[in-house]
Amino acid sequence: GEDVEQSLFLSVREGDSSVINCTYTDSSSTYLYWYKQEPGAGLQLLTYIFSNMDMKQDQRLTVLLNKKDKHLSLRIADTQTGDSAIYFCAESINSGNTGKLIFGQGTTLQVKP
Amino acid sequence: ETGVTQTPRHLVMGMTNKKSLKCEQHLGHNAMYWYKQSAKKPLELMFVYSLEERVENNSVPSRFSPECPNSSHLFLHLHTLQPEDSALYLCASSQELAFEQFFGPGTRLTVL
Predict the structure, then answer these.
(1) What is the mean pLDDT of chain A?
(2) Rounded CA gap, A23 and A71, in Å?
(3) Residue A92, class by beta-carbon neighbours within 10 Å (0-12 exposed, 13-18 middle, 19+ buried)?
(4) For chain B, which residues score pLDDT lower than 50?
(5) Smallest CA–CA separation between A79 and chain B, in Å?
(6) CB B59 within 8 A of CB B40
């Protein structure tokens, strides 16, 4: 079946690195995404990785993909209080002539000053 | 700004009211989505439209009725709602199905 799992909560100190993990089940996913949701707002696309890549770096963000284990992670370097939010991973599913994104339940990141 | 707008941002309604949520995308996308986000629950996909045709309806109660008059606009018509329908309703759009989705800010709905 289609399932994306994330841990629910992560707490770090300002300046430390944060690592948010995600596992997915569909091995045919072409793209995997990370979204950020701040309080009272919609989801904002942070970054994505194509399924034939192992790593993608974008400023303070590093995405690692282990396709064999179906494991995706998002590392935030030098975490700031403004990074406090809910982070969702999502996998794209293509089925015949249709497709959709499957979202995880979200990881709440708390950054302590 | 993601290019997806939603109105109203906040809505309080009684169980006997009829109201509509509106979503507009300025990105030239072909697919649009309605999600429900309740506290302590995963994001729930409600409806998917591709090229103005509904392609997915995830067992949503008939008191929620979507409408997609063109590829830029999506509505969610609400009638006879229940208090458990109180949630953040998010609209999203994507170039094609299974591509990255861009979300609006959501409508916070409270049903009294």
Answers:
(1) 91
(2) 5
(3) buried
(4) none
(5) 23
(6) no
Given this model, what pLDDT does residue A87 score? 97
Tokens 């507009």 found at: B24
> Which residues face B68 on adjacent strands?
none
* Closest partner CB to B103 (pick from A31, A43, A48): A43
Give chain A positions within 8 Å (CB) of B102: 45
Pair A35, A44: CB distance under 8 Å:
yes
Tokens of residue B14, six digits? 């009684």
- DSSP for residue B95: S
Q: What is the pLDDT of residue A55?
A: 94
Q: Give me A88's structure tokens.
A: 């969702």
Residue in the block written with tokens 């064999």: A68
Distance from CA of B54 to the nearest CA of A (A): 11
User: Which candidate, B49, B95, B92, B39, places its Cα nearest to that of B70?
Assistant: B49
φ/ψ region of B108 (left if φ > 0, alpha if ψ in -120 to 50, else beta) reads: beta
A90 near A104, Cβ under 8 Å? yes
Residue among A30, A33, A100 minimizing CB distance to B56: A100
What span, in angstroms and rounded, lies between the C-alpha atoms of A104 and A88?
A: 6
